[in-house]
Design goal:
By secondary structure, the protein is of the alpha/beta class. The protein contains twelve helices and twelve strands. Helix 1 packs parallel to helix 12 and helix 5 crosses helix 7. The structure holds glyoxylic acid (2 copies). This is D-glycerate dehydrogenase.
């Protein structure tokens, strides 16, 4: 009998065709509440799981006694309880590499959009308020030649530094667990401690994964250290930030603005004060979301899954 695989996110047809050749495939284009109980039923006999963001912890795994591999269609894997997976000898994989440039484009675009107030101005034009008399109310701040501080200098941080240095003549400061020689040599990035980065940067871009060490790493103290003219960009995980402190910093103008792709809870809840703040630009966690890149991620994730179930080492093994 073929091993059984559950795909729980919409993926390109070619991915399903590829998997169908090797496995018995159950395909859920999404997991709404209606379908969730069917999914849980099937989970009991599944050997492989392909998708993203689903919280896979002890309770979940109790219902998946035959599981051999969890293949995430994402670079982040904070949805996975790695210790619990390891204990059960279940493999886990992610999709680094293929999403680096698309994500860097999004996050740098978010920085530009926030600095130059593009969503607000788009609304201004479309709502018929452009009467040609009040230009100065529409001014933003420059991005070029400013200081960009990047917290978390992995491959995406590095690609953001490249855009900033080569395209916008920005000076780069960075903080990371280890030194990044490429960023230092090619983009003149300067390594510094977190407090120095926070107090010297005009733009602060948070790109670190979410771990117990980075949980709420940016809070009241950190916003206090930032310049009043600083713009804070979060392209990592919402839980890396104390969201209440961020809201206070924005409301009290301790910083100039924020560009956010991620939130403490996603989707963001209706009453969240961030939604009422003019100096905030919001995106719906779409860092890597282009047609081309999401296709590459899904293919890579399917290859990881197939290798794992065929007894080989998947190329992007996390554990
Ligand atoms: C997106 O946030 C990812 O982890 O790929
Ligand atoms: C992803 O590739 C990262 O920046 O760690």
């Amino acid at each position: 009998m073929k091993p059984k695989v559950i795909v729980y996110r919409k993926v390109p047809e070619q991915v399903i065709n590829f998997l169908n050749e090797k496995f018995e495939v159950s395909y859920y284009k999404n997991l709404d509440t209606e379908k969730y109980s069917d999914f849980l039923q099937e989970l009991h006999t599944a050997h492989g799981l392909l998708g993203s963001s689903l919280k896979i912890d002890k309770d979940f795994l109790e219902q998946a006694p035959n599981l051999k591999i969890v293949s995430n269609i994402s670079v982040g894997y904070d949805n996975l309880d790695l210790a619990e997976l390891k204990k059960r000898e279940i493999l886990a994989t992610n999709t680094p590499g293929v999403l680096v440039d698309s994500t860097a484009d999004t996050i740098f675009g978010l920085l530009l959009a926030t600095a130059r107030r593009m969503p607000e101005l788009d609304y201004f034009v479309k709502s018929g308020k452009w009467d040609g008399r009040k230009d100065e109310d529409l001014f933003g701040v420059d991005v070029h030649h400013k200081v960009l501080g990047i917290i978390g200098m992995g491959s995406i941080g590095n690609a953001i530094a490249k855009r900033a240095h080569l395209g916008f003549d920005m000076s780069i400061l960075y903080h990371n667990r280890s030194r990044n020689e490429q960023a230092e040599n090619e983009y003149q990035a300067q390594y510094c401690n977190l407090d120095e980065l926070l107090s010297k940067s005009d733009f602060i871009c948070l790109m670190t994964p979410h771990t117990p060490e980075t949980d709420k790493m940016i809070g009241e103290r950190e916003f206090d250290l930032m310049k009043e003219s600083a713009i804070f960009i979060n392209g990592s995980r919402g839980k890396n930030v104390d969201e209440e402190a961020l809201i206070k910093a924005l409301q009290n103008q301790l910083i100039l603005g924020a560009g956010l792709d991620v939130y403490e809870t996603e989707p963001i809840s209706k009453g969240n004060p961030l939604l009422d703040l003019k100096n905030v630009v919001t995106l719906p966690h779409i860092g890597s979301a282009t047609t081309e890149t999401r296709e590459k991620m899904a293919i890579l994730a399917a290859e990881n899954l197939a290798k794992g179930l065929e007894g080989e080492t998947p190329p992007n093994l996390i554990i």
